[in-house]
Design a protein that fits this description.
The complex is a heterodimer of chains A (137) and B (234). Chain A is of the alpha/beta class. Helix content of chain A is 39%, strand content 17%. A four-stranded parallel beta sheet of chain A has the order 2-1-3-4, sandwiched between helices. In chain A, helix 2 crosses helix 3. The radius of gyration of chain A is 14 Å and the shape is globular. Chain A starts with 7 loop residues before the first strand and ends in an 8-residue tail after the last helix. Chain B starts with a strand and ends in a 6-residue tail after the last helix. Chain B is built from nine helices and seven strands; from the N terminus they run βαβααβααβαβββααα. Chain B is an alpha/beta fold and 234 residues long. Chain B is globular and about 65 Å long. Helices cover 30% and strands 19% of the residues of chain B. The chains are: A alpha/beta (137), B alpha/beta (234).
Chain lengths: 137, 234
């Protein structure tokens, strides 16, 4: 299990989160290649089912990277995103799954460190918890 | 609308534990509006149950689908093959939907995925409050359009009880006294004289206490002749 590369999915809003990821890549920041980035118009568009589906399909951990809450392009999109993440955490806890497998992060598009930091945190969580059920999907 | 709430996931998983093939059926009516049993909630439940099973190393087949109105046989009939093709059906509708499937397929197991709660209205996004108990004898024309049966903890009919203070209910200080609200509304409508009228003891025979109630519209019912000419489910 220790040799296995964790599977992480990061949902990033196209206004700040994804731009922060691109900036990180251009700045030469290390981004773990096991992280899949899914660009969404706004984190407020993300529904619980998107996050759960990622876990269901084999991701070990999932994160959402949206705009800073007081500087959201769509005003309250990242607040909505945080609420969805909170609800999914609750559902996971009810299902007996570690709720830290899902997290919400916020960043401005100029925060080159934000995406690598979020990814690294989730990689650490995934390595610590291992895959759900202990094996490949 | 009918407001319901999903049962805890652990309870649902336990109910379904000994069945291999599970069909989860939601409803696009009231329970979709109150975010308990619509398409999204069915998908989320199925996904969460699959993840839980993976963690526990269990194998079960889940299929999630949604019908327009689960309390109407015509809509349920459309998914009959999915129901009968499974070991058990988990209804994500209110109890009416679950019982409709149960009545249509009595040999087949249909379990409830939701706890059916109240006749409520959306007060704000994500908040529903009870405003009717279906007593069968509406009196809100005399109480400023506010139902004292559902909104007063003691269902008082002639003004507030002695425990009402500062417009709050003594049973729950978070809740406004229904009679304070009724007084304000009648005052606004210049109908405060109504508050002094004595309402006699309520006839509860129209309420639930008499057992199952059935409402009939004779003009809408099909005659035997009409029934013969029409394919009737069940």
């Amino acid at each position: 299990m220790t040799d296995r590369r964790p599977k992480i999915v990061g949902f990033c809003c196209e206004k700040h989160g994804a731009d922060a990821a691109v900036l990180a890549a251009r700045s030469g920041k290390h981004i773990d290649a096991s992280v899949r980035l899914v660009q969404v118009p706004c984190t407020g568009r993300i529904d619980g089912i998107h996050l759960l589906s990622a876990l269901e399909e084999g991701a070990d951990a999932v994160f959402v990277l949206g705009c800073l809450e007081k500087n959201c392009y769509y005003d309250t999109g990242s607040i909505e995103g945080r609420k969805r993440v909170g609800y999914v955490k609750q559902v996971l806890a009810e299902a007996g799954i570690e709720k830290e497998r899902v997290e919400m992060f916020n960043a401005a598009s100029t925060n080159a460190w934000a995406f690598p930091e979020a990814a690294a945190k989730m990689v650490e969580v995934a390595k610590r918890l291992g895959p759900i059920g202990g094996g490949e999907k | 609308m009918i407001v319901a709430k999903r049962k805890p996931l652990g309870e649902i998983a336990e109910m379904l534990a000994s069945y291999k093939k599970v069909t989860v059926i939601g409803c696009r009516s009231c329970v979709a509006i109150c975010l308990a049993g619509g398409e999204k909630e069915v998908k989320m439940l199925v996904s969460a149950l699959k993840i839980r099973n993976r963690k526990e190393g269990k194998r079960q087949d889940f299929e999630g689908l949604v019908v327009e109105r689960q309390c109407e046989k015509e809509w349920v009939k459309e998914v009959e093959d999915k129901i009968l093709g499974s070991d058990i059906t988990l209804s994500m509708a209110c109890s009416l939907g679950a019982q409709t499937i149960g009545d249509m397929y009595p040999k087949h197991l249909t379990f409830p995925g939701l706890n059916t709660g109240i006749f409520g209205v959306p007060e704000e996004q994500g908040v529903w409050s009870e405003k009717c108990v279906g007593c069968g004898d509406c009196i809100i024309h005399t109480t400023g359009g506010i139902c004292p049966i559902s909104r007063c903890a003691k269902s008082m009919l002639n003004g507030p009880c002695g425990g009402s203070a500062d417009r709050k209910c003594e049973v729950n200080l978070e809740v406004e006294c229904a009679w304070a609200a009724i007084y304000d509304r009648l005052k606004l409508q210049n109908r405060l004289d109504l508050i002094e009228r004595i309402t006699p003891a309520k006839d509860w025979s129209t309420s639930h206490s008499g057992g199952r109630r059935v409402f009939v519209r004779e003009d809408a019912k099909l005659t035997q002749h009409q029934k013969k000419g029409k394919e009737v489910v069940l």
